[in-house]
Structures are given as C-alpha cells and as structure tokens.
C-alpha cells in the first residue's frame, strides 16, 4: 500500500504528531508514504494570506523523512473534472484525483474523501 498524506496529516506529522491516529502512525511508519506538490502549494497560499504559520523547512522535513513528492500531472488535473461535487476545495479534489489515479490510500481527517470511493486511513 502507498499512502498520500492530506495537507492536514502532513502538518500534524511535522508539528503535532500526537494528533495522528494510531492507525495513521503505524501506516506511515510501515508503508511507502508521499505528499503531493498540491499540499506545498496549499500551504504556501495559506501562509501568504496569513491563515497558516507552518514555518519554513517543510520540504526539507519531507525529504529527510523519506517521503516522496507526487507531482501534479495533466491526468490528475483532468480527473478532477470527473469527480462529483462533494468538495469544492480544489486542493482536496486534486488529492483525491491523485490518489485514485496512483492507487494510493489517503491519510486524512476529512470524512468526505471516502465518499469519492478512494481508500482512506483516518488521520
């Protein structure tokens, strides 16, 4: 199983690991884990408008932890078009599309993700 960490799960892993569920912690420790480039983009936007203080060095932490970075490819973009409108957040929709196309399990606290038919582990 390959895991894709939602932005919230990534931030918790870095800054508040105690918030992650025991199941998420075990999976992250034993499975191939990745973050999406879209999570970096979402964090950068929220930092720029003052909605988030995630500090610097997040990308360095990701690489040091051995997490892969999933790029945004055109097939991911086009897959978002076919998703039902359960979520209007474009970042979340991209994460779902990536997980579906790449056959990954999403680690997230967002209950709506499972409604897309993507495999989910509760963060």
Short characterization:
This protein has 123 residues and is an alpha/beta fold. It has six helices and five strands.
Task: Tell me how many strands there are.
Answer: 5
Which word captures the global form? globular
**End-to-end distance:** 16 Å
Low-confidence stretches: none
CATH architecture: 3-Layer(aba) Sandwich
Percentage of residues in strands: 15-25%
**Mean pLDDT over all positions:** 94
Question: If strands are numbered along the chain, what order do they take across the biggest sheet?
Answer: 3-2-1-4-5
| CA radius of gyration | 14 Å
Q: So, the CATH homologous superfamily? A: 5'-nuclease
Question: What count of domains describes the coordinates?
Answer: 1
Q: Which fold name corresponds to the CATH topology?
A: Rossmann fold
Element string (H = helix, E = strand): EHHEHHEHHEE
CATH class reads Alpha Beta
Summarize the biggest pleated sheet: 5 strands, parallel
Which structural class best describes the helix and strand composition?
A: alpha/beta
* Tally of separate helices: 6
**What percent of the residues sit in helical stretches (DSSP H or I)?**
40-55%
Keywords:
123 residues, 47% helix, alpha/beta, 5 strands, Rossmann fold, 5-stranded parallel β-sheet
């Amino acid at each position: 199983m390959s895991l894709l960490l939602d932005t919230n799960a990534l931030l918790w892993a870095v800054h508040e690991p105690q918030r992650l569920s025991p199941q998420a912690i075990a999976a992250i420790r034993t499975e191939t884990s990745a973050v999406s480039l879209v999570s970096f983009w979402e964090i950068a936007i929220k930092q720029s408008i003052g909605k988030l203080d995630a500090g610097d060095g997040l990308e360095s932490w990701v690489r040091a932890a051995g997490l892969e970075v999933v790029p945004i490819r055109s097939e991911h973009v086009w897959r978002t078009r076919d998703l039902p409108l359960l979520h209007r957040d474009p970042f979340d929709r991209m994460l779902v599309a990536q997980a579906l196309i790449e056959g990954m399990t999403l680690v997230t606290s967002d209950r709506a993700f499972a409604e897309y038919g993507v495999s989910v582990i509760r963060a």
